[in-house]
Recover the amino acids of this structure.
C-alpha cells in the first residue's frame, strides 16, 4: 500500500516537473519580456533609483507600521537569494565551465520580469482588513 502510494507520488512529480516545465517557464518569461517591451532594460534606471537611490533615505514617512526602503530591499533580497542560488552558481561553474555564466545571465535577465510580475500581482491582490492589517502581497 505504501509502495503504491510512493509510486503514484513519484509519477505525478515526474509528470508535473518534467523538462516541459522549464520550457513553459522560459516561454512565460520571454512572453512577459516582449509584452512589457523589455521592461528590464527600459526601466533599469528607475529601478536603481527606487531601490538603491532611496535605500537610506529617512525623509519620508517614519511611521512604526511602515517599512523603510532599506528594510524593503533587504527583505526582498532575503526572500530571493538563498543557499540554493549560491550553491547553484558553484555547481554550474564546476560542471558547465565558464559558459554557464552566460546562461545564468540570460536566465537572470528573463527571470527579472517574472519576479516583477509576481510582485505586481501580489501587491494588486493583497487585502487590508478593518484593523488596517495587510494580508497577502509579495512579502507575506
Amino acid at each position: 500500500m505504501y509502495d503504491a502510494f510512493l509510486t503514484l507520488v513519484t509519477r505525478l512529480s515526474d509528470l508535473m516537473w518534467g523538462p516541459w516545465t522549464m520550457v513553459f517557464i522560459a516561454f512565460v518569461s520571454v512572453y512577459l519580456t516582449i509584452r512589457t517591451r523589455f521592461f528590464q532594460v527600459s526601466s533599469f534606471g528607475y529601478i536603481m533609483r527606487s531601490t538603491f537611490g532611496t535605500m537610506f533615505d529617512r525623509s519620508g514617512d517614519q511611521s512604526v507600521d511602515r517599512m523603510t526602503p532599506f528594510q524593503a530591499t533587504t527583505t526582498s533580497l532575503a526572500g530571493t537569494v538563498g543557499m540554493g542560488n549560491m550553491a547553484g552558481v558553484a555547481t554550474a561553474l564546476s560542471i558547465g565551465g565558464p559558459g554557464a555564466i552566460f546562461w545564468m545571465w540570460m536566465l537572470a535577465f528573463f527571470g527579472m520580469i517574472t519576479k516583477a510580475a509576481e510582485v505586481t500581482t501580489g501587491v494588486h491582490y493583497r487585502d487590508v482588513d478593518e484593523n488596517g492589517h495587510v494580508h497577502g502581497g509579495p512579502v507575506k
Q: What stands out?
A: The radius of gyration is 20 Å. The CA atoms of residues 44 and 50 lie 10 Å apart. Residues 2-58+67-135 form one domain.
